Amino acid sequence: DQQVKQNSPSLSVQEGRISILNCDYTNSMFDYFLWYKKYPAEGPTFLISISSIKDKNEDGRFTVFLNKSAKHLSLHIVPSQPGDSAVYFCAASASGGYNKLIFGAGTRLAVHP
Amino acid sequence: DGGITQSPKYLFRKEGQNVTLSCEQNLNHDAMYWYRQDPGQGLRLIYYSQIVNDFQKGDIAEGYSVSREKKESFPLTVTSAQKNPTAFYLCASSMSGSGNTIYFGEGSWLTVV
């Protein structure tokens, strides 16, 4: 049972345009959400996070939106750059207990000139 | 230079052999984790440790063992009982408790030959 789903395995975007990566979750207990970026043969790098008490968090070119009623979050990258080409993982955790992250399967973003 | 160091980066193992992957962190994090990534899949939790001398099984602990004798170190042993050991292994750490960002090492590739 996938609690965190990234339904688009891949996304291709032109340089300078907006990239929108989507993530859905099923567990209503999740209250902390993160996005990681991963290059091949490297560890994931933390990008941005959002707590369930917010609906938007922005950091430079990266913005994460959270829609709790729809159990949906998205990562917007504006403007997209070729260096953004990587696999993006959405992850979620629930408060209480240990810091357990549940990951989606990832979306491969390709930014082309 | 603060971070998480995994070694070796690439490891080949013959069937029936145990191998140990090293993970060291100098971030002063209490919690450490081992994840596994398979192609086209998200990260799955093998083991985690919230404090020295204590560790717990994650979602796919069978065929693996860990120890946590020092705060900085969390080695993972892949035993011969692990049926499909070929994968990319990621060590991570965080402050203890939920809602804290988890940071990852660079990963170790294990191939069974």
Report on this structure.
Chain A is 0% helix and 56% strand. Chain A is mostly beta strands and 113 residues long. In chain A, strands 2, 4, 5, 9, 10 and 11 form a 6-stranded mixed β-sheet that branches. A 5-stranded antiparallel β-sheet of chain A has the order 1-3-8-7-6, with no helix packed on it. Chain B is 0% helix and 50% strand. Chain B has no helices and 11 strands. Chain B starts with a strand and ends with a strand. The model of chain B has no long low-confidence stretch (mean pLDDT 92). At the A-B interface, strand 4, strand 5 and strand 9 of A face strand 5, strand 9 and strand 10 of B.
Number of helices of chain B: 0
N-to-C SSE string of chain A, H for helix and E for strand: EEEEEEEEEEE
What form of chain B results from the Cα inertia axes? Answer: globular
Distance between the ends of chain B:
35 Å
Counting DSSP E segments of at least 2 residues, the number of strands of chain A comes to: 11
Uncertain segments of chain A are none
Gross geometry of chain A:
globular
CA gyration radius of chain B, whole angstroms: 13 Å
Distance between the termini of chain A: 38 Å
- Which sheet architecture does the biggest sheet of chain A show? 6 strands, mixed
Query: Major β-sheet of chain B, in short?
Result: 7 strands, mixed
How many DSSP helices of chain A?
Answer: 0
Secondary structural class of chain B: mainly beta
In short:
The complex is a heterodimer of chains A (113) and B (113). Chain A has strands spanning 4-5, 10-14, 19-25, 30-38, 45-51, 56-59, 62-67, 72-77, 86-94, 102-103, 107-112.
Features:
heterodimer; A: 113 residues; mainly beta; 5-stranded antiparallel beta sheet; globular; B: 113 residues; 7-stranded mixed beta sheet; 50% strand
SSE topology:
The complex is a heterodimer of chains A (113) and B (113).
Chain A: E1 4-5, E2 10-14, E3 19-25, E4 30-38, E5 45-51, E6 56-59, E7 62-67, E8 72-77, E9 86-94, E10 102-103, E11 107-112
Parallel strand pairs in A: 2-11
Antiparallel strand pairs in A: 1-3, 3-8, 4-5, 4-9, 6-7, 7-8, 9-10, 9-11
Chain B: E1 4-7, E2 10-13, E3 19-25, E4 31-37, E5 43-51, E6 54-57, E7 64-66, E8 76-78, E9 87-94, E10 103-104, E11 108-112
Parallel strand pairs in B: 2-11
Antiparallel strand pairs in B: 1-3, 3-8, 4-5, 4-9, 5-6, 7-8, 9-10, 9-11
